[in-house]
Amino acid sequence: MTIRILLDTLVTGLPLVPAVLAIYLVFRIRDDFDLTVDGSLALGGAVTAVTVVAGWPPLAALAVAVLVAAAMGAVTAGLHFAFRIPVLLAGLVMSIGLFSVTLHVLGQPTVGVDFTDTLFAPFLDLPSRTADTATSATLAAIVVLAVGAVALFLRTEIGLALRATGVNAVMARSHGVNDRRLLVVSLILANGLAGLSGALVVQTQGFADVNMGTGTFVAGIGAVLLGELLVRPTGSRILRIALCVVVGALCYRLILVGALRLGLPAADLRGATAVTLLAAVAAQRWGRPLFGRIGRALPSRLPARSRDRAPSAEGI
Question: What is the pLDDT of residues 148-174, one digit of tens each?
Fold first, then answer.
């Protein structure tokens, strides 16, 4: 049972890691909200389904999905600058409009994909558990490449400037950083990652649905908060940021998969998602300060002898 839950978590959670990373880029590094990722994930999945059904190689379909979704981030930035509206509002408009775009791409609400045409076709003849293990390994390799590429980007001069604009945009602009251009870069990158998640989800579950991106941003924030609670990244530690995203996404998914395996009706999954998000917010609000006070209080409560006594040779 435990192995089954872990495999289900990996197979369903790893495809969502790029989307959670996208949300981290916008929500934490840029300190903003971009609801375009909801539509970009669904559009990336739709493009993948249509191209795979048309006979495209699965990697080519994945690449096209990423490019199309990234272009949606550029459109959001264009709306923001052209109409002088907040990114949140521009993203909301895009997420609504992309529903119709995705429906036109699919031609119907749901399109099925033959597993023999996906990245995971070589595993079809394997036993169920072995196939899921191989699928998880393939997904992990793709996720490591995607997260690693973003981590390397954040270490570049442009990536450092991007992080600086999120911390203090006025200070960054005073040092010659073009904040407008970096906003475009961040939205393109975030939505490209969301499109990658959509492409991976379609190739693992075998179908694309017009509603598959609904609630992605909100659920992603819950995963980010959960990851921050467990990993506690800082703005200057790229590796811990990457771990925060991966751990948060998988733990968030583990909670939902575990609930379903324990008998939660599928109709209540949205409610479980909302409760998990509230729990993550509550843990961020009250849990971390409490743990911090306990950590600071422990040294002062230790006996003086145990704090001051040097280790003896016998103890070593």
Answer: 999 999 999 999 999 888 778 788 888
CA atoms within 13 A on the CB side of 12: 15
Distance CA 296, CA 279 (A): 24
- 90: tokens are 């521009």
| Model pTM score | 0.88
d(CA 278, CA 222) in angstroms, rounded, equals: 8
Q: Which residues 6+ apart lie within 8 Å of 239 measured at CB?
A: 151
**DSSP character at residue 214:** T
Q: Where are the alpha helices (DSSP H) in the chain?
A: 2-13, 17-24, 36-53, 58-83, 87-106, 128-155, 157-167, 169-174, 179-205, 216-231, 238-261, 269-282, 288-301, 304-308
Q: Tokens 């490449």 — which residue?
A: 145
